[in-house]
Amino acid sequence: MSEKMKKHSEDLSFSFSRWFRRVSANTPTTFIATVAIIGYAIFLFSGGLYTLVVQPIMVYPYGSTVLFLYPNLSMQFGGDTIVTAILFSLGFFGMYSIYQSAKSVSKPKQAYMLLIAGISLLTIAYCFLEVAINIKISGT
Predict the structure, then answer these.
(1) What is the pLDDT of residues 20-73, one digit of tens each?
(2) What is the DSSP letter of 58?
(3) 121 Cβ partners below 8 Å, 6+ apart?
(4) What is the Cα–Cα distance from 116 to 24, expressed in whole angstroms?
(5) Domain ranges within the chain, ordered by starting residue
(6) What's this model's pTM, rounded to 2 decimal places?
(7) Where are the beta strands (DSSP E) in 29-129?
(8) What Cα–Cα distance (Å) separates residue 67 from each residue in 85, 97, 118, 137?
(9) Which one, of 26, 7, 3, 4, lies nearest residue 15 by Cα?
(10) Torsion angles phi and psi, residue 66, rounded to 5
(11) What is the Cα gyration radius of the chain?
(12) Left, alpha or beta for 87 (phi > 0: left; psi -120 to 50: alpha)?
């Protein structure tokens, strides 16, 4: 019985050392690094750092409506951060779709659909970000 346990423990240690060697030698792919950097940039541009430091309220009930965007440029709600992060992400996915459409020129139908989807997402993100900025500037 002890021989059987010894053999099993040797196999286990060998498989664990092989797994550890593979994991420690593995470097993160460029895709993961790119997604992490873009996610961090979207977090910073949307005001995530301000939200973490100041900890503002998420939304403000104003009569029968709810305000997600603070009607002034000097401060923001937590909802501002979420709204702008979603819009920046839409813009990024639009730009990524346009990039992918340029890469798939051998399939014109797919390239055209990706181009239209990318331009649509980018336009939606831009228009809604302009509306959000105008709401904050006008104060209503």
Answers:
(1) 676 666 667 788 888 899 999 999 999 999 899 998 888 888 888 888 888 888
(2) S
(3) 90, 91, 93, 94, 97
(4) 42
(5) 46-138
(6) 0.74
(7) 60-62, 65-67
(8) 17, 32, 30, 15
(9) 7
(10) -125, 130
(11) 25
(12) alpha
